[in-house]
Structure formats: C-alpha cells, structure tokens
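S.,

Sequence below, as promised.
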Amino acid sequence: MAVTIELDRYGGMVELLHHDESEDRFHIETVSDVEPILDLNKASQNDGTRGYGATREWRLKARIPNVIALKLLTEKGIDVMDKAVWDDGTMDRVLNDPDYRYLRTY
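The prediction came back faster than expected:
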C-alpha cells in the first residue's frame, strides 16, 4: 500500500511525500499547475511585440514556472536565479532547445 502526505505548499508548488510500504521507499514529488504561465507565454509569442515593453526599453525573454526552475536546478544544475547563467549564454541554449521552447515569450 502506498501512502502520500502533503509536506508543504509554497510559490504555487505542492511538495508531496510518497511512501511505498511494499518497497519500503520514500519519494518526494513537487507538483504545480504551470498552464496559466505557459498560456501567457504562448499569448506573448503571438502578440507581435517580440517580448518588448511598450517603450521598447526592456525585453521579457521568458517566464519560468517555479517547478520548472526547480527541475532545471536538480536535473541540469542550472540556477535560473543566477545572473551568470543568463550572461554566459546557458539560458539562451536552454530556451532555444525545443524541449524548453514553451518558456520563451517571443
């Protein structure tokens, strides 16, 4: 029998602890509803602004849901909150990857 306990809720994410008694193993799962952010990204990709603000003084490159930022950190070692990964082209490579295209706003 598997048992699931909600550990924590933060930043729109829910952290769940799963215990599989048959295997005597614990697993932590982090889940979040990312559809509203992805829908907003898709709308931005099609709005004709190419990510620029009204005055064209700034450009929004991506919206990254917290759970995806956590996935990038744990699976690829990329901390999206570290300015260096934006400056050295790491995030450009991630955002240009077809698997992560949905994060871009243009």
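The chain has a mean pLDDT of 90.

Coffee later?
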